[in-house]
Amino acid sequence: MSDEEMAGIESRIAPPDLTCPRCKNLLPSGLGELVCSMCKAEVKVEHEITRKKWREEKVSCPECSKVLVCGVDQRPTNLQCAACKSHFVLKPHRPKIEVSCPSCERKLRMNKKPGKREIQCPACQVEFRISF
Ligand SMILES: [Zn+2]
Ligand SMILES: [Zn+2]
Ligand SMILES: [Zn+2]
Asked: So where are the chain's domains?
């Protein structure tokens, strides 16, 4: 199961944006052992500040809205609400970017993922490519 399909809530804390030391493309967002999606290099990423922020992140339970302190320095992580006992997943933050359509200049928001993507503008149907 990819993390795109997981039910749960999204972390608001983003790890730093880093580029692959081999091919200079953007690495996938995360900490620990990352694999560059362009050249498949394995890169170890650590960032103590992000880990600390992850531990201290406050999230509200999707069931009862009680605010919990996460206490775990990994994403994704499974949490259990202390009030209603429901389980939910705290998913990694998905970096978003804004791009403008080259034809109508409408601003489109999308998940930032390394690599090239083909996009179709929902307003004017023009197709264009972006790469990160
Ligand atoms: Zn690379
Ligand atoms: Zn709850
Ligand atoms: Zn457009």
From this structure: 9-91, 96-131
